[in-house]
Amino acid sequence: MKASGLAFSALLVLVLAVASLFVGVSDVSLATLFSGEADGRALHVLLASRLPRTVALILAGSAMAVCGTIMQMLVRNRFVEPSTAGTVESASLGFLVIVLVAPGLPVIGRMAVAALFALAGTMLFLAILRRIPLRSTLMVPLVGIMLGGVISAVTSFLAYRFDMLQSLGAWTTGDFSAVLRGRYELLWIAFGLTCLAYFAADRLTVAGMGEDFTTNVGLNYRRVALFGLSIVSVVTAVVVVTVGMIPFLGLIVPNIVSMIVGDNLRRSLPWVAVLGSGIVLACDIIGRIVLYPFEIPIGTVVGVFGSAAFLYLLLRRNARVF
């Protein structure tokens, strides 16, 4: 039943991906592609813009959803994900710093610096959690949101001092409209790390049961936790550098999947990846249709949908907590 449900969900994602190829201002349709009347423009738009955009949506959506699952498992709280733990804001700060200090650095170098900042911000978040009494599970995302607000304020101040506020807004707003062939391939790194997380799913599941339990079964908890957080940091940096922030995706998808298949990562990660890519594809199509021919950035669409889902989870009386 669950396997057939996963296959059906994958089929829906495939339908959304095909629809994504033919939605937009430029006239790209089966008729223009095969009529023989076109001068090749429709085919060029399809191969240079629409296809890379669709692939980028699938890669970014699945990777960010998997990152949210890993963070929730390691922190043992369902309200945590990269955008509620300061990880995304730290990656943005790192990206801005490297643009100011070494603007000529290649994209891979910018991604590496952003990943280091993201890892440092996540470790700072965990260090704060260890030092304060957590009387409520809601304190964990609250601490993360406050930490992210402080880091975001520092980023905005630096951008203001160096007259880069407008550029910062353009970088950090999740938007796939500028994705073209040759400008999204960095996301394949996120895909590789997502696969790596699947192969290490059993260890991450054990780490989610706590340090004492992990040590008792013969695993090094700190090493497994660092491995998981490194995946989260690098994937977050890749997505921020390539397309900007996609808020709340890593929060809502793991919670929905947990209701369907439970908390074992070996079973849930394929669901998380499929559902994450499906939601991102659907939100991007909505953003392209609502104000056609103009576009609403996907960060705004996912933010509206995700914030509503976040509030629902907070108010849900029988919300399960690790």
Summarize the structure.
This protein has 322 residues and is mostly helical. Helices cover 73% and strands 0% of the residues.
Task: Characterise this structure.
By secondary structure, the chain is mainly alpha-helical. The chain has a single domain (1-317), classed as ABC transporter involved in vitamin B12 uptake, BtuC (Orthogonal Bundle). It contains 14 helices and no strands. It is globular.
**How does the major sheet shape up?**
none
Outline type: globular
Oligomer: single chain
Kindly identify the CATH topology.
Answer: ABC transporter involved in vitamin B12 uptake, BtuC
Find the structural class using helix and strand composition.
mainly alpha
Instruction: Report Rg.
Output: 20 Å
Q: Summarize the amount of helix as a percent range.
A: over 70%
- What name goes with the CATH superfamily? ABC transporter involved in vitamin B12 uptake, BtuC
Our measurement of the CA-to-CA distance between the termini, rounded to an integer number of angstroms, reads 26 Å
What is the CATH class?
Mainly Alpha
Pfam family, one: FecCD
Subcellular location: Cell membrane
Protein name: Iron complex transport system permease protein
Main location: membrane
